[in-house]
Amino acid sequence: MATQLEANLEKLRASAPLVHNITNFVVMNFTANALLAVGASPVMAHAVEEVEDMVSIAGALVINIGTLSAHWVAAMKLAMRKAAELGKPIILDPVGAGATPYRNKVLTEVLETAPPTIIRGNGSEILALAGAGFQTKGVDSTADSMNSIGAAQALSARFGSVVSVSGAVDVIVHGSRTGWVSNGVPLMTKVTGMGCSATAIAGAFAAICSDPFEAAVSAAAAMGVCGELAYREAKLPGSFQIAFLDKLAEVSPAHLAELSKVKFE
Prior knowledge:
By secondary structure, the chain is an alpha/beta fold.
């Protein structure tokens, strides 16, 4: 798989895919910068009047429910319907799933609108989304990714989606396939927007990969390797955030070949 990770990174940078994000206020700037750094082209467009047109020219659609409002939910549904109609990959980040009844209601509605190509979240969010009756603690995970594999498999079976669960070990499932990515550092959990950026980068890889499972694994490995490289230079959250963006821009196929820790079942 290391060889494919290298090829996917090179293809992403050569293609510079346009990634349409309907994301949250908290992470918008960091997510856009992360996409630019890795080699993609971000657009943050939420107006119901233009989301269908924007999806039409994008390579992938990323839906992030972090900061909800009625108008943004309407835009999400319009964009998802258009993406499904055009066969564009849809990546869903169920931020804070299980935290409030409204958030759960919105997730039910968007999942009914169109099945996501990739669902990417932390262990608590995946458990809640799968209907395990799990109560999340805001947007932070209180469940380990390894304890969420069953929920991820259930979601994958129900929607046909690749499900990527972040944690100390990222777990990616799709049908009978399971992948583990053991890269990253704990400091990544202390910087707001890391998970949301991981979802956006999964969108970038999905735009250039015909296999969404491969795209999700590539994104998880790239994020984790860049986290490890950044930690060599920065040990505190503020400087780490800047170093991480720098490493997204600097990471090479050789870095992925040398440092990625990926295995499959």
